[in-house]
Amino acid sequence: MSRTRVTIARVKGERGVWVGVGRAALPLYMSMIAASAGALVDTALLGRSATEVLAAFAVAVAVFSPAVSTVAGGLRGVMPFVASGKDDPRALSAVVRSGMWLAVLLGGLAAGVVLAVPWIGAAAGVPRETLDALGVFPVLLAGSTLAVAVGSSASSVLVALGHARLVMRAGLLGTGVSVALSVLLVGGPGPLPGFGLTGAGVAMLVSSAVSACVNQVQLRRFAPVGALLHPGRPDVRRIWRLAAVGIPLAGTVLLKFAVLGVLTFAAARLGSVSAAVHSVGISLANLVYTAAVAVGQAVVPPVAEHAGRRDTPAVRATTWAGTWLACAVVGVLGVAAVLLGERIVLLFSSDPAVRRYVTDLLPLVAVVGVTDALQAVPGFALIGLRRTVPAFTAVLVCYGVLAAVAVPVAASGGLMALWTALALANLGQAVGKGYFLHRHSAFPEKPVSVPAAG
Question: Where are the domains of the chain?
Fold first, then answer.
């Protein structure tokens, strides 16, 4: 084959990787955006209630969101095992069944933490009137946490099998149910009674249950023929193998939430305006970062398949294609946020000082988003390689340093310095995860057996 033909084939191959990752990531991104929009509806509707009700909602969600994110992160550890065994119904059955047991364990632990919201709030000094407004809301959120765990065990398998569109359908249906029930139950349109926080909890529980049921039904419908997907008896050894990959991912999520909490504390020490500006910036950064998470999840299955074949070039090509795609999308969203700064800020605050400060911070928010995307996709690729401890190590080192310097950096340089430090921490993670990816994707060649002479 001539050099020109080789070049053309290589370009077509790289383009195919980009297209494949993009097609898998788009429905996941749409599902995440819809879920975020649904959460905003609850906040907007409860904002019309008493201040204590909205404060109680914020306190409960401050525990619920990290708990659910930790469970979902831990269950992503199932994906490389599914991608590697999807052509073997027996192996796939064992992974799916053990993944369900892992979901029950992680979901039960997270639900217990959510149930403890009143005690956590009391220990944190939340006013008694706010805690009294919680009512049965923590119980409903605990049920929603279990439902999310069961649904995530199925959605992780579906994504690994290449059915991201099915996950999107379940997510959009759940969001639609959440919005409809929130409108009916929270405020009570027309003559209908409103149930406030309890109504929001019912909407969240039913929405999570609907999404979980749809994901489980779709898994049974589209799984390979011959796969047995009922939980069966727990296989402790296999569950531990899955947990060995998933638990560091859960730890990474918890660590990130904890350090972001430290940054919020550092910003709050600068005054109410800085605290409000930081909150808006984090909300925008998380919204932009969702695109990188979607691309990262789309990268895991092909990386796991290439790793199973010990194909080093394919693993690295897929990872870098996903990385540049994520950075490009996040970069475009960040630039759009900067250009539309004044209009976007109007949605978050009516305070002129806050609006002006957020507008000045937006370029740094975009930089933080791009650096976060730069580190995210190699981290997801390490999931495909089943090497999640190195990724956790990179997060622990970089975010540990960030947590240690956050308060003095904010005190000396304000929010701009704090967000610059966040961007540098993300960049450090990108370097660390890139190194670990390069190291663990360098598969040793299989020894060639030579027949004995004579």
Answer: 11-234, 247-442
